[in-house]
User: What shape does this take?
Amino acid sequence: MGTAELKIILEFSAGAELLFGNIKRRQLALDGTKKWNIANLLKWMHANILTERPELFLQGDTVRPGILVLINDTDWELLGELDYELQPNDNVLFISTLHGG
Amino acid sequence: MIDSEALENERTKLKREIAELRAALNRKEQCLRDLETTISEATGDEDDVHPDTNGGVCHTQLSNDDIARYSRQLILPDFGVQGQLRLKNSSVLIVGMGGLGCPAAQYLAAAGCGKLGLIDYDEVERSNFHRQILHSEARCGMSKAESARIALLELNQHCEIRCHTRLLNSRNAMHIIRTYDVVLDCSDNVATRYLLNDACVMLRKPLVSGSALKTDGQLTVYCYGNGPCYRCIYPVPPPPEAVTNCGDGGVLGAVTGTIGAMQALEAIKVIVGLGDVLAGRLLIFDGSSCLFRNIRIRSKRPNCHVCSAQPLITELIDYELFCGMHATDKDNPLQLLASEERLDVEEYRNKVQQQPHLLIDVRQPAEFEICQLPDAVNVPLAEVLDDSYLKRFSKQLEDTQLPIILLCRRGNDSQIAVQHVRNRFPKHSIRDIIGGLHAWTHKVDPSFPIY
Assistant: This one.
């Protein structure tokens, strides 16, 4: 591993983007010299890009109920949730659940 | 001078009476249809009809009218006569006759679904028409279920339609759902979604769940095959402040139409046994960039409270309590402030409006553009909460004698704004207007628009 950057894509859908400056897709270059799991990523997001009411995104160390987390289009619950270790070019998608009709 | 208020009252009264008469006519027509069905069964008019195990009837042949009407789907190789007969013998319950329920019901009735149940406690109003496409201006004030029935029977008189005009709750849900094969969740609130899920798990009914807001939509099928239920995916309800309804967030009709039409498609696939049903997957529709995304969601949760082998929930609970939210999308007035921190509209008009004051309207710019009070300045709630408004009003805010009045559409967000602003300016008089602009229309100026 000679690269010093871990490049991943963050996406937000169904209103979750409103908490992150209304940007639906971001390319991140994280510090590649250390290991990143979803728990660290959430802390990084809180410190760097979460612009509106954090309680609408986070609850304790994890996302609040009603937000789904998908890693490469697969539910994070199938992949180890907070412990999933991010790989280069991973796509992490946060979806707010909708209830209207 | 003509008493315009009396005329207006007379008009409202007449409209209501006409709506009631239409509903009564509708019920009579349904009675007649039921009676004719009973007569034709008793006299054995239809030799393709056999009693089924539920005491209903089971069609084993298509009529010539069926063949002509459904010819374009009958010739589909995977659908065919057997598919059409399954639809004809099926019953689907649609919960919510709004933006999702209208198109879903329309496609199911058109496709030849034998029996539709329609649930909605609410009445038709003007703000429904842009997306709830079965209702009409003439049926304003009528029950949504009754209104939808009229439109659906015009489309297909062979469809048997049953209306349930009460709010679905823990006491009536099992009884109503039991008689249907498939349930469509076209509701607009979290409590009803948990209620429908639990009842469908207990009764083993596939639940086709759709939702929409703004330009986004979501769709999946719960309780089908080995797929998960709603609680497997969402074991804990979201915090109420994180839930936005269509009345507050807005929604485009073509978006609910897209999701509603797909709910009908999934119901038809479940009934006919066609294709791959959207279970264990979630369809996400982003209408603003026209992106459909199909994601794999978890399978059944082994310790799910309702659908696992050892469920903790074995009968329906109080879902409004469980969610901390009402089972409707109607206004839930907040009560965050003491009465001395609030102002009613008359007091604002009679006293405050005549004096120097700072009136801050905290709605979104798109809402402010629709209508606004004279002298109001627009500072969206988010800009109040992140203090970016301070710079703009630094001069005025130096004067502790200048009353600050906060205003919004219905008097909820304005209370949140007062709580925030008074912490920073404890010496100022900071109040909000009770009931917001809706109260202004109702009590001060009836010509002020309502949305």
